[in-house]
Inverse folding.
């Protein structure tokens, strides 16, 4: 069975000029189709600052953050010539509308979340600042029945066995540990420090 993969590219990597080259080289080391979710980085940080200043609603801020991730997705996709944008609710490799030559897509997550809501389904994630692209990527991996979730970041996890400890260290968001426990058969979760050469890989 060829694995399918969700790759979460952390927002902390967006200020790294070598990101497109390093990501492309790393993607060549894994097999199977890949859907990439890009964190919001400083774009979402700016929205969070506006939320704190103007006390905007948690749910409305959540949706704005998702749309900001659409923006960072388009930026990365533009710099990755062998990827394609994806706006669908279903996995792109099951859509029947893509070329078999394309095995890498950059997901615009607001379309996925809004599509689920319109179809009477849900992401089952808190619509608040507690939910980051980490939990979004995990829930997408679960809903798409992906075999692996890669968390690409600028750091190495504090713990190789305890997601609660990693959440306390702000490696993942606070929703992530309970979400992992709630999934009957979670994907294999592999943490990658992409800035290290060679990269650090930790399976938890």
């Amino acid at each position: 069975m060829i694995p399918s993969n969700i790759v979460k590219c952390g927002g902390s990597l967006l200020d790294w000029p070598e990101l497109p080259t390093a990501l492309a080289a790393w993607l060549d080391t894994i097999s199977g189709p890949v859907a990439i979710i890009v964190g919001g980085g400083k774009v979402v940080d700016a929205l969070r600052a506006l939320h704190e200043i103007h006390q905007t609603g948690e749910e409305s801020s959540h949706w704005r953050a998702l749309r900001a991730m659409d923006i960072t997705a388009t930026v990365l996709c533009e710099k990755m010539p062998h990827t394609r944008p994806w706006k669908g609710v279903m996995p792109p490799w099951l859509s029947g509308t893509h070329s078999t030559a394309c095995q890498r897509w950059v997901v615009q997550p607001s379309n996925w979340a809004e599509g689920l809501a319109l179809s009477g389904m849900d992401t089952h994630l808190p619509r608040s600042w507690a939910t980051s692209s980490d939990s979004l990527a995990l829930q997408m991996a679960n809903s798409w029945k992906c075999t692996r979730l890669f968390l690409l970041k600028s750091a190495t996890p504090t713990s190789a066995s305890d997601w609660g400890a990693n959440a306390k260290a702000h490696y993942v968001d606070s929703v992530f540990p309970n979400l992992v426990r709630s999934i009957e058969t979670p994907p294999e979760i592999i943490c990658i420090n992409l800035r290290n050469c060679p990269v650090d890989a930790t399976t938890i």
Q: What stands out?
A: Strands lie at 5-9, 34-38, 84-86, 104-107, 148-153, 188-193, 200-203. The chain is about 40% helix and 15% strand. The CA atoms of residues 10 and 16 lie 11 Å apart. The helical segments are 19-27, 41-54, 58-79, 109-118, 133-143, 163-168, 176-182.
